[in-house]
Design goal:
globular; binds 2-phosphoglycolic acid; 11 helices; TIM Barrel; about 15% strand; alpha/beta
């Protein structure tokens, strides 16, 4: 059984005081979330504050990291540093990293490798651009991102996740149709089976791209969608708590 996973990706938002206020508010609002893994990925500068306020009640994740352990890499941050801030998760290959910071599939692959080695839970982001979708390349692109992103890696053997985030749906208010996202999630699950037979059963597949309080339940109802990666709508503590509340677990 896959445990649902709902992740807030704050991107480059919130100062320390805003982080503290959000954390206090969110702790009051979150309910019935024991059966869901809830993760917040603040900017690196907010990790220590979130840890201090939320303790073990919220999982923390990095939005990115570098593949070396230490050294002369100005502006970068390592897996060990994330772990030392209390992170269990890390987002790898977000489309904004790919598009704005030229992250190729081979860079994504190196980051996946170190995340798995360090036993951080990677959330590998994949998804097509609008042009690729219009050219009927969505499945080819996602397949390539998976194949190259996972090339040569040992199967995680522990919990991890793939987030399907169509680039045209991120921050645009234009979400994918839940049925279409389900078809892609099922495709991703099947593709994972070509790497390793056991991957499809334990990999959590998330949808991301303009998830809101209004549409979240329709994504969560899909058979192959195990949660969401949420940007804009996660910036408000009440909205994020309400979205998490939309996930119906069996009891
Ligand atoms: P959005 O971002 O929810 O603001 O569309 C999602 C993401 O980038 O992970």
């Amino acid at each position: 059984m896959r445990k649902p996973l709902i992740i807030a990706n704050w991107k480059m938002n919130k100062t320390i005081s805003e982080t503290e206020q959000y954390a206090q508010e969110f702790l009051q609002l979150k309910k019935n979330t024991e059966r869901i893994d809830l993760v917040i990925c603040p900017p690196f500068t907010g990790l220590a504050k979130l840890r201090a306020v939320c303790k073990e009640q919220i999982n923390l994740g990095g939005q990115n990291m570098f593949w070396e352990n230490s050294g002369a890499y100005t502006g970068e941050i390592s897996a060990d540093m994330l772990l030392s801030c209390g992170c269990r998760y890390v987002i790898v290959g977000h489309s904004e990293r790919r598009r704005l910071f030229n992250e190729s599939n081979s860079i994504v692959n190196r980051k996946m490798k170190i995340a798995l080695e360090k036993r951080l839970i990677p959330v590998l982001c994949v998804g097509e651009t609008l042009q690729e979708r219009e050219n009927k390349l969505a499945y080819d692109i996602v397949s390539e991102q998976l194949r190259e992103g996972l090339a040569g890696l040992e199967p995680p053997g522990h919990s991890w996740a793939v987030a399907y985030e169509p680039v045209w749906a991120i921050g645009t208010g234009e979400n994918a149709y839940p049925d279409d996202a389900q078809v892609m999630a099922a495709f991703i699950r099947a593709e994972l089976g070509t790497f390793n037979k056991s991957l499809p059963s334990y990999t959590r597949i998330l949808y991301g791209g303009s998830v809101t309080e209004n549409n979240a339940a329709a994504f969560f109802a899909q058979a192959d969608i195990d949660g969401a990666l949420i940007g804009g709508a996660s910036l408000n503590a009440e909205t994020f708590a309400n979205i998490a509340g939309k996930y119906k677990t069996d009891d």
